[in-house]
Amino acid sequence: MASNKVSVVLQPLDSSEFVSALRSFRRVLLSCVGPEGGIKIVISGAGYTTFTSSSSRLLNNITLSNPVCVFIKQIIQSQINAFLDHGLYTGILITSLLEKILSHNIGLSVPAVASIIEHLSSILLSLFDLNCIKLKADFSTVKQLLSVVKSILSTKPTCGLSKADIQNLHLSIVKGFLQTTNETFGDVIVECIEATEMKSDVFLGILYHINYDDISTVLYEKCNKKGCISLLLFNIMLTGEETSKVSESRSIKLEDRKSSNSFVEEAMKLFEQIVELNIDVVACQKVVHPTICLYLQRKGILLLDRMGTDLTHAVEKLSGATPISSIKHCSQDPGGLRSLLGTVETLKMVEHGQKYYVLLEKSGSNIATLVAHAPNEEAAMELKVVIKQSLSALRCLTIYPAVVPGAGCTEMSLVIRLQDLAVNDFDKYNCSRSQLESCVSWLQIALLSAAGFTTAGSSQLTADTVFGHAWKLNREACCCGLVSVKMVHDGCGRWIEVFNNDGNLLLQDITSLSALSSFPPSVKEDTVVDLFQTKHNAVKLSLESCVNLLAIGMIVYKSPND
Ligand SMILES: [Zn+2]
Hints:
Blueprint: E1 8-12, H1 16-30, E2 40-43, E3 49-52, H2 55-61, H3 67-83, H4 87-103, H5 110-127, E4 135-136, H6 143-153, H7 163-180, E5 187-194, E6 201-204, E7 206-210, H8 217-224, E8 229-234, H9 260-276, E9 281-284, H10 290-298, E10 302-304, H11 308-319, H12 334-338, E11 342-344, E12 346-352, E13 355-361, E14 367-374, H13 377-399, E15 402-405, H14 409-424, H15 433-450, E16 462-464, E17 470-471, H16 485-490, E18 495-497, E19 529-531, H17 532-549, E20 554-558
Parallel strand pairs: 5-14, 8-9, 9-10
Antiparallel strand pairs: 1-20, 2-3, 4-15, 6-14, 7-13, 8-11, 12-13, 15-19, 16-17, 16-18
Helix pairs in contact: 1-4, 3-4, 3-17, 4-15, 4-17, 5-14, 5-15, 5-17, 6-7, 6-13, 14-15
The site of zinc ion has 8 residues, from loops.
């Protein structure tokens, strides 16, 4: 009866098996980071292959067996859900710090180390309020908006964008954001398509893609019409094959399954009434029966079908139409039907990137469409995620107008200042000085590693002694671009190595770091910045999670081999 037994894995938190599971998970996360980060090939259980470098897409495609890794994945997900960014960062910070703590024995119990980490993290989080870390966002120019978007775009390698593409796209994203933002945030619909030409553009209104064959006399008539365009919207299939509609936001309506013919008969009665109203456009989320298509065409009504969920919601918002979700229950009298109508101001034919579109416009609508191109289908999906992430970052910036230096400079500044503060406070901890220094260095290494500075091969990484920013060899400015070589010389500073050749942190012995400037440098257009709120939350969430996870005594789970 051995097959009925469930074998259970018992794993102490500091067992070598758990540390090695943690290490593999961290390596997967780490390999995605930054412009140098590689593309992951993920093959799911169903054999579906995905190429990705985005943490949100990666996480959806991997399965983890260790419950602690599953928990860390959930923490990463909660960071992504809240900010759409810094998910990988959170994952790397947690796994690096846990791995350091659990793989070293410095003569302290795990709970004792956890309480030191808790104390250090409160010092670290208070450093975020320094004038030179929390930089006020300035909305008098678009420079800071541009640099936020550029920072996000340039860290994603798989979108297949060149420098020139990024330049063009980040202007489009900021333009789309500004054009739809008044007192409230509007909607930017993101359309990413495969194309050889990469130029992106923003259109105020909604773009509906059509084929060359769809360009008809009816379409020309509507585009040339003076006065507003009336529109009726359906969010059901108009074929009779599936008349049930399930939607998240509305109630579920199930109708009797009838033959296609009787559906068409019933629908035609309604459409005869609709034609009487002299409307211009029928828009439908799903497929429309050919008989109905032909009828509408003969009556000179433009049909926009298969719009999809996003576009249907946008048309509902833009036109003010009430979507019809049942033929049977729809009012047939002219007054009732008229109350469901919406309007747009103009229809235009647009040709962009060798594709044709109908543009629906209405002034003051706060809806825009951003069209971007990618070299292949996978890249297009990736790009759509990244553009949405950029737009959400811009919205976040409007609510919390603060940024921090990007490209690892914030982490370097924090790490250097932490060294000084932690050791000064030595009396507050119940441990020896060398035990405290070990804990400090683990936290420092974990932060630098989350910022993309790993100990392997980073001997050319330096920090300046004036601002404490990160530098790579032979650069004119620090990694984020805020500090120039001249500024360091003017402050009589020098550059110090961060790691030695063996990957050990060199910050302990340096006394020259105690007098860092807290003067806030000014943000320029090419500065790499991150959102304050996103970064602060990611660090806080990671450190809190680490402290909580260190309280686990034993991991118990069903063996994955069963
Ligand atoms: Zn910098």
